[in-house]
């Protein structure tokens, strides 16, 4: 997923292991999910921690626990991972609240024809009606809880691999999704995904975002599951925002954009984990991709399917080896 159309080597600025910056610095007068919570939620049921718990004597376990498994990151929801999406989302946001009023970060990833260009994460809802029911239930299950949601990674970068009819359908569904979060999840900051700095011109991406209803939600996300460093990602996001002509906020996925990016998009050798979080409400930096989860059967993990945790991938991201 997140295949680059133009690929170049980039210099990284994020160190592999840095202290967390708590999500506590938002203006208290702003009714934002940051101001309503006490920091990011580190879910003990995400793949890295589950692997660590199951392999306590493995020589990699302690390092993976310290550098990845205990850090706040997003939970990805798909049509197959959680058959009862309403119950799954409500349980996740409720668990975050019970853990000390922590901030849950969720990814909605179930569009029909998902990952059209990369194909490693192909799938999604079978019909338009099925997706509309799924995303409506997703938003309603969050309800008044504070949350951050990334809406459909890849969705606006895949147009080169889609027909005009498929693009029209996708735009319609993204408009529906933004409307559902605006109407049913008032304390959620939702972000439409805008690809990455190697995947389309900012003006082109801005036009696609606008056509898909970005003005209804908090803003847009960049670099989800990719490796472009934070400086380039922020520059890309700033140019998109200028092209939109709005004050939309944006979110940068910093989970894997540390040192060593070699220009590949699928389980590349070299890159390290990036900075953990930021308190800037206009330009969040969060872990969206779960480090150690494979991009697909490719690169340094040719036998590990997309979305599956691989301790060797995790170790590479920690050490850069």
UniProtKB/TrEMBL annotation:
Transmembrane segments: none annotated. InterPro entries: Beta_cellobiohydrolase, Beta_cellobiohydrolase_sf, Glyco_hydro_6_CS. The keyword Disulfide bond applies. GO terms for biological process: cellulose catabolic process. The keyword Manganese does not apply. The active site is at residues 154, 295. Residues 1-19 form the signal peptide. It comes from Winogradskya consettensis. This is Glucanase. Belongs to the glycosyl hydrolase family 6. Substrate binds at residues 76, 199, 226, 265, 289. Gene3D superfamilies: 1, 4-beta cellobiohydrolase. Keywords: Carbohydrate metabolism, Cellulose degradation, Disulfide bond, Glycosidase, Hydrolase, Polysaccharide degradation, Signal. GO terms for molecular function: hydrolase activity, hydrolyzing O-glycosyl compounds. Its EC number is 3.2.1.-. Pfam families: Glyco_hydro_6.
């Amino acid at each position: 997923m997140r295949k680059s159309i133009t690929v170049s080597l980039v210099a990284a600025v994020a160190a592999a292991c840095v202290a967390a910056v708590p999500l506590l610095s938002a203006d208290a007068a702003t009714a934002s999910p940051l101001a309503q919570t006490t920091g990011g939620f580190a879910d003990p049921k995400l793949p890295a921690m589950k692997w660590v718990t199951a392999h306590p004597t493995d020589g990699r376990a302690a390092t993976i626990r310290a550098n990845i498994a205990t850090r706040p990151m997003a939970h990805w929801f798909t049509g197959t991972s959680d058959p009862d999406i309403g119950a799954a989302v409500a349980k996740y946001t409720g668990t975050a609240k019970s853990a000390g009023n922590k901030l849950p970060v969720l990814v909605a990833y179930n569009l029909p024809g998902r990952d059209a260009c990369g194909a490693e994460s192909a799938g999604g809802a079978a019909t338009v009606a099925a997706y509309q029911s799924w995303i409506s239930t997703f938003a309603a299950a969050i309800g008044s809880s504070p949350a951050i949601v990334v809406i459909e990674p890849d969705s606006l970068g895949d147009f080169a691999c889609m027909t005009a009819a498929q693009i029209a359908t996708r735009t319609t569904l993204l408009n529906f999704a933004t409307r559902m979060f605006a109407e049913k999840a008032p304390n959620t900051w939702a972000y439409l995904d805008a690809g990455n700095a190697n995947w389309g011109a900012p003006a082109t991406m801005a036009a696609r975002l606008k056509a898909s209803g970005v003005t209804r939600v908090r803003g847009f996300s960049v670099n989800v599951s990719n490796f472009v460093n934070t400086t380039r990602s922020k520059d890309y996001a700033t140019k998109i925002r200028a092209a939109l002509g709005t004050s939309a906020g944006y979110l940068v996925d910093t989970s894997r954009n540390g040192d060593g990016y070699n220009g590949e998009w699928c389980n590349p050798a070299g890159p390290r984990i990036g900075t953990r979080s930021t308190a800037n409400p206009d330009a969040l930096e969060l872990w969206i991709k779960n480090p150690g989860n494979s991009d697909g059967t490719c690169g340094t993990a040719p036998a590990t399917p997309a979305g599956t945790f691989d301790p060797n991938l995790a170790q590479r991201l920690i050490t850069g080896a």
